[in-house]
Model the fold of this input.
Amino acid sequence: MAESPTDVLLKGDSGRNTRGLLRFIILATIAAAAVSSRLFSVIRFESIIHEFDPWFNFRATKYLVQNGFYSFWDWFDDRTWHPLGRVTGGTLYPGLMVTSGVIYHVLRFLTFPVDIRNICVLLAPGFSGLTALAMYFLTCEVSPSPSAGLLAAAFMGIVPGYISRSVAGSYDNEAIAIFLLVFTFFLWIKAIKNGSIMWGALAALFYGYMVSAWGGYVFITNLIPLHVFVLLCMGRYSSRVYISYTTWYALGTLASMQIPFVGFLPIRNSDHMSALGVFGLLQLVAFADFVRGFVPGKHFQRLLTTMVILVFGIAFLGLVLLSVSGVIAPWSGRFYSLWDTGYAKIHIPIIASVSEHQPTAWPAFFFDLNFLIWLFPAGVYMCFRDLKDEHVFVIIYSVLASYFAGVMVRLMLTLTPIVCVASALALSSILDTYVFASNGPNPRSKANDDTPSEGLRSARKPEVGITSYLSKAFMLTSVVIYLILFVAHCTWVTSNAYSSPSVVLASRMPDGSQHIIDDYREAYYWLRQNTEHNAKIMSWWDYGYQIGGMADRPTLVDNNTWNNTHIATVGKAMSSREEVSYPILRQHDVDYVLVVFGGLLGYSGDDINKFLWMVRIAEGIWPDEVSERDYFTARGEYRVDDGATPTMRNSLMYKMSYYNYNSLFQPGQAVDRVRGTKLPMEGPQLSTLEEAFTSENWIIRIYKVKDLDNLGRDHGNAMAFDKGHKRKRATKRKGPRVLRTE
Amino acid sequence: MAPKRTPAAASSAAASGSSGPVSAPSPQTTAAPSSLSSGPKTLTTNSSIFDIAHTVWQQYLATTPQRTLLLDAFMAFLVLVGGVQFVYCVLAGNYPFNAFLSGFSAAVGQFVLTASLRMQTSSPSSSTTSGEEGAFADYVFGSLILHFFCINFIN
Done:
């Protein structure tokens, strides 16, 4: 199909320029596609921050922009974790906030009057364009084929596994961290190929940026040493390895220690010890390699044996000493849960309760990666065929990331880049094989400039094998169909699964028009308008960040789950009887309690469904006061209807969820649409709390904690008296109730 | 034993000896093995570790060019500095741990960078792309970053 005018453009010097220009245009288009496919949520809903964690990041960014960098660094936040507070400046990864702060100030300097919220909303799509670019560079380092890089960039731009964390509005650490991850790996491969200090130092700089942005930096910290270690084991030690690794480690470790939250971890935490170990090992190997230049083989062996024994003895002694004296911290819990998938459920319910920490379901792989997932092994196999240093890296990365992605849903994110690389390798080799097999070099060019006998052979040959037009057309068509299906799948997944802000819900009316359910913001705005500025709100920790961000009220617990006991306290208050809960609420100065209830609308992410986690976490701290078994019926069912256990029906959470719910329905007809059950005839009675606000669709219910009774009665009696139930007074035999102190 | 060792030493001189620009001392290095073989120490198959180590030392002194020796002296100094800091930390406590860490890692980092520079400049067989000037520019770049972080970390 290449006729003379295109030949002029595609061959020789001008051809190179044309191809460069084309490549640039293609990359720009890919970046544009990556950005625009993430804008579904902005178009459907509005420019709003999504989900939970982003609300904290947004709040922190606003604080940074308003108060400047230094006060952000020293920020002590007394409006979260009441009454403890949180040293926010020292316990967050500041990379994200600082990045958007810098963008904000640059744009302001260029006199663009842009709102910080819009920067935060659009940061993730913007960086996804950069990720596609970084992906192109990374793949070009791995593969000689120019098409592989472009394919990988295109895959990375729209693959749902990455979009899931980077749609507009999901202002989370991963938004920039994946770009940094890919770019650090690109720099690392560049460094190990060139063996230059500069690339190693650049890799270390971006590694430092990555550390400042996301806790997942530990993945890099362990992957790069592993790569080096495998190279050493393969007998591939060279000065390039030494230069790039030691430069990266020395500078990268220092860079990572600049972040207050990381601090001395790289020295103390076992997660980082492999990097240190490989660093030491590499010094020894380098020294041995240096000495080997001076002595003949046999003597070198003896020298080496002595050295090895000596060094291992010292290292072992040192390790034992350090472990005994407790200088080196044990492995962190999240790390254990990576290896033993049951660990978290037994030991740290707080980690297991997060849905993104659950093991991945098999369909999720196909859902998130579509046809890349079956091209992926082929690409890895192709890395084995010419096993250069960078291919070893791809192989190690894919093996490790596959495992981790199977353990935790959210680590699918780290698998996605390498899947894009590997499948781009596979696909580009298919395309190269079939497109170039006959068109250019093989038969025709030979026929043109060689002897007639060759021409004869080529005239005979093209009809068979892969060079025939039929097979080419077949292969290319199928590849194109797969690619089109991929694009269609990605668009569908992005628009349907990943573009919901989860702060604003959407549903369809019977006539097909969209109906926006905005209960969250309604309720948070009510809090902002109608409560005192320092009113303490208790809710389950999922909503802590949103209350802090949207309602601007102090919370007891939030999504930064650093204090398990405090969360368990809230869990206990939610899952106990009113008589037990009320003292807890009083002790923590709680003014309002917020629960999420989806029973009216059929919104399944509500607190009753999360309730068992509250019970479990509370049970972890107070095993003899809260017991998970009590919330199940004798037959082991979790029920909210007539068959619910007394413990369940007396728990504060149950009461708050269903309080007054009966009044919406005919008597005896109250239905919970999430659990799909009919509720008891008589609704629960609350005596220590009073309903303050219920949102339009009943998703959010806010209760005010009553003050102590003026006459010193307990609230049950006061309620009974107000209602005129004189009989109930007879039950008061136990004397005045006192505040429970723990 | 002596004839067996001479080719080994010559090859080692070629492998880890002078690079292109530093070709001036290379006549010396070819002369060195003969002077060594006339020395008192000859390595037998079961000579002790110390003998071997001593031979290595002699070889090293004889075959390394002046500029590389300078780098090596600097590296030895850095090892000394790092060692002293470490011993101080063990004996006198690590109270300003930031300061200790930044001092120690400055020594380690500089050592590592210098070793890299030495590898890039002294062995022609290394497959690094940049020349000597490039290697030195890289070295300066790396050192600048290193010391920036150290000073920032020292509190």
Remarks:
- The first helix of chain A runs from residue 4 to 10.
- The interface with chain B takes residues 194-198, 200-201, 204-205, 238-240, 242-243, 246-247, 249-251, 253-255, 257-258, 264, 267, 286, 290-291, 293-296, 298-299, 302-303, 306 of chain A (CB under 8 Å).
